[in-house]
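3-phosphoshikimate 1-carboxyvinyltransferase, Cycloclasticus zancles 78-ME. Tokens?
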Amino acid sequence: MNTMLSSLSQGLKGQFRVPGDKSISHRAIMLGSLAEGVTQVSGFLEAEDALATLKAFQLMGVDIERLGEGRLRINGVGLHGLKAPQEDLYVGNSGTSMRLLSGILAGQKFDSTLTGDHSLTKRPMRRVLDPLSLMGAAVESTDAGTSPLKVHGGAPLRGIQYKMPMGSAQVKSCLLLAGLYAEGTTEVIEPAITRDHTERMLKGFGYSVKTEGNVVSIEGGGTLKGMSIDVPGDISSAAFFLVAASITPNSDITLQHVGVNATRTGIIDILLKMGADIQLLNEKVVGGEKVADIRVKSCQLKGIEVPENLVALAIDEFPVIFVAAAYAEGQTIVTGAEELRVKESDRIQTMADGLQTLGVDAQATADGMIINGGAVQGGEVESFDDHRIAMAFAVAGLQSRGAIKINNCENVATSFPNFVELATQCGFELAAK
Ligand SMILES: O=C(O)C1=C[C@@H](OP(=O)(O)O)[C@@H](O)[C@H](O)C1
Ligand SMILES: C=C(OP(=O)(O)O)C(=O)O
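Tokens:
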């Protein structure tokens, strides 16, 4: 899919499920592979990023059977059962795969190399390499602190206490996974609470993890026991529909079985503050993760100052939050979101540039954006090879004065391969070429 053309919609309707959670899918492969015994997974995200993690573990000798759409049987090899891969571990576009894998690989006896695509080779890796080297790991990057990452196996790891300089679930998870192989306790202190899927899933696999406020710790030397995992729908994919239905008159949709873990629901809190009509239905806990159906109806959004404590809880949703702000009445101010500059693209700059092309008064700042809501014009924008930028502009086209053409949309497949299909089924006017 090279381009998407998004035009005026008369309303969105329907009840449907978005694909499985990307963060949980990565972790299911990783922990299932390192566990003893069988792990059964349903709802797995069959998209490029999660499949990159799956392939990496197959290359390290793990037998992973694909039983049908979203269903896997992982025959775990235990914490010390991975085999040296015969080739570089290429993880495509996926920062989560590279950073979490670096922690696991640091604990192995063999050498390995992690590589990625053009976007991933520009993303900062010192954030994991610095603390890993404090643990005793031997991992090399380029001089710029980017991948390829060469991991020298056999270095004994020791637990450390590490105060993270940025809020990042990837860094936290990398260190907890390395901590499985370390002598003693690994303790991570977060500046802001971030998604806690690693901690929850480790507990599900029978491994003790302690969380007290923003401090998470783990002892090395235990074992993981295979389990069954039901991956809920990804709230980061649901987010496009939450904003789409909010800004499109005559809309009423229900997204079924979405993960609503409190470390991921910043998007809901932000939209509710903007005046959105969102209800959580059928709330329940499945495999240690909270799940609900989310019903959303159209409304007039209003601009807000986004509280900084919600930023890490909605970090991947900002491209589409900026679109919501463009359609809101009044001003929206986002601060404390400098992490957006080191995602698949610089999501502050790419969104500000695109919104300005569409006639929106959007000013990028060092750590966020100031957007004055108003009419959105049609036009042609770039995705900069970033899946979330592409889908955010597809949402922007639903009520713009003139269609929006989005270039370079192949990367939608990294997180949401059936986006166009689901979007058109519920009422988007979206043509993909
Ligand atoms: O741990 C994870 O699964 C993720 C953590 C976040 O990254 P950071 O930890 O770098 O903020 C998020 O942006 C990414 O999509 C997935
Ligand atoms: C930032 C993202 O993913 P990753 O860091 O895994 O590439 C994302 O999916 O928005």
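The two ends are 5 Å apart (CA to CA).
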